[in-house]
Amino acid sequence: MRQVIALGGGGFSMEPDNPLLDQYILRQSAARTPKMCFVPTASGDAEGYIAGFYEAFSAFGCTASHLALSRPPTADLEDYVLEKDILYVGGGDTMRMLETWREHGLDRILHKAWEQGVVLAGLSAGSMCWYEEGVNCDDAGQAKVVQGLGLISGSHSPHYDSEPEYRRGYHELLRSGRIGAGVGVSDGAGIHYIGGKIHRVVSSRREARVYGVEALDGEVAEIEMIPEYLGAL
Predict the structure, then answer these.
(1) Contacts of 30 (CB under 8 A, 6+ apart)
(2) 124 catalytic, yes or no?
(3) Of the listed 159, 186, 203, 204, which one is catalytic?
(4) Structural domain span for residue 168
(5) Entry pTM
(6) CATH number assigned to the domain comprising residue 132
(7) Cα separation, 226 vs 220, whole angstroms
(8) Is 204 noted as a catalytic residue in this protein?
(9) How many domains does the chain have?
(10) In terms of C-beta density within 10 A (0-12 exposed, 13-18 middle, 19 or more buried), how is residue 121 classed?
(11) Side-chain-facing half-sphere of 230: CA atoms under 13 Å
(12) Exposed, middle or buried by CB within 10 Å (0-12, 13-18, 19+), for 98?
């Protein structure tokens, strides 16, 4: 079963006291004790980010590991990745991450992992990467199109209604025809795909939203999706 869980933002690094999205990701593996691997490439393999991952997931009944391409754990990356149950990709610099993956052949390995049923998940850069196209905003707030791995058709913007430059930039790219239709996902929300199709839309925050977006006659149309809140009612 080919699964992708794309979070606009959230998880252990953004919501340390709200584990709902991280626990949801863990539940999608059929393994009793899932082998969860964190991929922090987009952060430059930041030590603090890696430490935060272990601190968070040590409480969740999984076998945690990480893959830092700056200091690979093994020369055989394919075997290392394919024996995992879940791969969780962190946020940061999307373009640098994808470049580094291609240099190491990890893009090809991730595609194979998806085909073989490894659950692929992540937030921000770690959600954008799974789509055909993504919206990347630089420090000046300028939006650029990122070419992703193409496991999910269409385009994607994280932080959609929590960081205004993402929504604004996505709309500009859509109106100009530089990016195709897709989904804008706010912090605290996630889309769970099975076989490339939306299976569930979930959230760790009641107010979090997901939007289908496209350009029609030069104007951007949004279709709001209200996620299933994962907390207690």
Answers:
(1) none
(2) yes
(3) 159
(4) 3-229
(5) 0.96
(6) 3.40.50.880
(7) 19
(8) no
(9) 1
(10) buried
(11) 21
(12) buried
